[in-house]
Amino acid sequence: MGSSDRGADPPDPPTLLDRADTIPATPADLIALSLDLPSDDALEALLARAIAGGRARAFTHTLLAALHAGRPVQASILTSGGGLLPDVSTLAVVAGHLDGDVALALLRAVQGRRLGPDREPAALLLAECWGRRRGIERPRGLIAEARIRSRRQLPPGALDALIALGALLDDPHLDTLLAVQAPEGVRASAQALAEALVDRLVGPVLAGLSPGEVRPPLRPVRRAVPRHGRNELCWCGSGRKYKLCHEGSDRVRLADSSDVEGLTISELEAGLEAHLTPERLAGLPGYVLARLDPAAVQIDLQPILAEHLCLWGELDAAVALLASCWRPGLEPTAAWVAEQAARLSRPALIERLAELHPEGSGGFVLEARLCLEPDRGARLALIEADALNEIDERGVDLGLGLIAAGLPALGIHVVRSQLVLRGDDAHSDTLRAALVEARDALLLPPWDPIDDVLYLLEQGVAPAAGLELRHTRAQLDHSEAALAATQAALAELRDEIEARRAPSPGGAPPGGAPPGGAPPGGAPPGGVLGPPEPAHEALIEDLRERMARLRQDLKQRHRERNALRRELEAAQAQIVALRAGPHGGGAPSTGATSSTGATSSTGATSSTGATSSTGAGAPAPPGAPPPEPSGGPPTTTGVRIPRFPSNFQSQISKVPEATSRTAMARLGELCAGYARAFRDCRPLRGVEGVWRTRIGRSYRLLFRLEPGILVVLGLIHRQSLERHIAQLRGAP
Is the dihedral of CA 15, 82, 57, 275 positive or negative? Predict the structure, then answer.
């Protein structure tokens, strides 16, 4: 049936949107809605109006009804409206029934941050599956976006989608990145997710649809009405029993309870600004954030709201927020929004922000200023001027600006030099993230050579030699532990033999003769032992055999220990040669020596007599505090009791299991006062009294030391470190 045959008088479009916003998501209601849809052109305008107003429920119901009726809807609608769909299952249904290049539309939605970080991997997976079914070439940039997201912290569902996508793309570099954070057993769940999405992609529009699929309830739920006895007088004062008065209407409100006590979900959505918290802002989708009234949002939450709007790609709403609520103190937020607008190539928004900022565009980073220059020659002049300003400083703008200006290879070279000059500080994580993201965009191998250089500068030894040294030391420690256990067993056997040979407390010999009597077999008295009884000969022979075996084991352990010690000395000599080789001496020797005279490069102390490299000269006496690590906390001895933040359990549950184990082990060492745990600690730049230590590649453990207490501030992903530092600076 054509669009002209769908009825002479369709309902007014605004009324149709209101109806779509209120009906449940059941097949019968959506089929009834599809019968009243307007013509194709009017339908396109209707969907655009729903997107502009952020009406997710009306948009989803209208789109599903149109697709069920076979109406033509272009795939480009996903670029602007994909974020309004409730979940990846609905996204798969919609993607399978749109017209046009769905794969390209999904990729652009991901690049524009419209879908949210939790659904972006699933969108990339759907784009690849859709293209394979249609026999269409994969859109350029899909592999790069998959690599970029493989480096980020992802929830289990998003990680499953990314693993399934990696199996389809057959990109070895993506597989390498996924192997870092994909635990065993995830492959099966990834395959199940991929199969479910493909079923929705090719299945009917309304198959498996349920009312709760479009509007998931908020959690945790608080009662929208207080508890009231059924036979008690009604709270309204009518004098009737509650069950005969308001119980029915209260049950309806109770079924719609929100996570704010006394409010239904509809009431909460109508006055959401009064109940905003940082946690609630982090859990709201972009279209809901964009609908908030900036004037009704608390002043201290406005910068956080602007940040989350940018993360969802709602840059227009973020700029409108700053324009309506501008005040002194919002300059850093405006600069950050301008940086995000530059990465999405939105110069008009940067110009609006420059009008608000007291320093104009001069208060923005190089990325934003380059976006305002359309002429390539003017861009090069701006880059040269910025390079001249940073030539004697350890800035970060130049490398990031080159990458954002469309010169990623040149930016990678500059960022490498900046990483070497800066060392390990708050900005180094930002530079490293930009470097690897640029490599992913260029489809280069995932690990940059600068990693080995930084490791050498930090540890004083090449990565390969450091790994070999740690492996040799671990073998030596294991051998020494086995040797100690063998020696203890041998000593226990000797004690047992001596105890059996000794006379009994009453003076009787081992044969059991009574005190004062003659020994068995006519042996002469006087305490002289005769030949052993036959009953004890087998036991003594067994003990002798066990002792002989233990002696053999002991000799073998000694031979193993000596061989490992020789390997350790050879590895240490190799390290000394590496230091004195191409770097003209390398890291300065600290004078730590082992019992054989070889210099130690790790500072670990073993039972072979090797002295720690962290202290020069004679070893410290027992009980003396270990030397302070360079740049580490002032006091490393003494046991401290950990104090955790209220959300630490939530933080630790969201990271990979290996990372959480490493973090808890490091916390135990820090609280126990082990000096080795403080060697990698660094002061947090700009926040006095706060220290950080690296947990794996991507996480930083922040803490503060107080008398007898170690205050844990959080386990932070390196991409969120700068934002957390800003929050700590603003904390009282």
Answer: negative
